Amino acid sequence: MSGSEDKSAAGAQTVRRALALLRLIACGQERGVRLVDLERMSGLNRPTVHRLLKTLVQEEAVEQDPETRRYLIGQEITLLGLARTRRFPLLTLADPYMAELADQVGDTVFLSIRHGHDSICIGRRTGRHPIQVLSIEVGVRRPLGVGVSGVALLASLDADESTRLVRSNGARLEVLGERVEDVIARVDAARREGLAHAPVGLMPGTSAVAVPIMSAKGEALGAITVTAMAERLGAGRFGEVVDRMRQAVAGIAARWGQVSTRA
Predict the structure, then answer these.
(1) What are the helix (H) ranges across the chain?
(2) Where would I find the HTH iclR-type domain in this sequence (predicted)?
């Protein structure tokens, strides 16, 4: 390999590492992510992580909280994102169905998609019930398998691929207090049942259920999640909520097929 090829390969590696760090930092949202956790999750050594972070901070792609010393996504990334405000056609198609579902069940409805090894919430609709469970914000990025949406998305894949993805997220899952084998077991159960259910949600006293949105080609377009106070997703009401969710995802998938055919 020539010197110029060596430099090109090294440059590409640096870009990939920087983007990997940005994705990890994005998972921290407003809490931020500690340097030690970035090292553990990225698999990079401290000098490399520190060097990349220094450059990203200089370019305002990353910020460091002066009190907690945690790293957060910087304003430059936010501003760059404004250039593609219509990047998610699925959200445009799904929004009316999400609004109707939220009105029917009375609770909060989320839309999530898979991006690489992560699930990302791209939409949210609140219902009419006086207590709404706003467990995550739009833009939340989590390793696949954390939360019912990620489990539902993994369950839409074949077992070998979903297991590979979970294991590749092992270090990140460990930082979040999740065991790889537990996640795989939840995915297997979701694949059998056609949905992912967490009787105990991310917040105490809450519950959540997610159903994947499958295209006519058998590909997962995303997942719809309903979160509510636990008693509202109990045995007496659970089946009705799931039925309405399945009607919504069927409508979204059909609409997607119509638009895709015309395109």
Answers:
(1) 3-27, 35-42, 46-58, 75-81, 89-105, 148-155, 159-168, 170-175, 180-193, 235-262
(2) 12-75
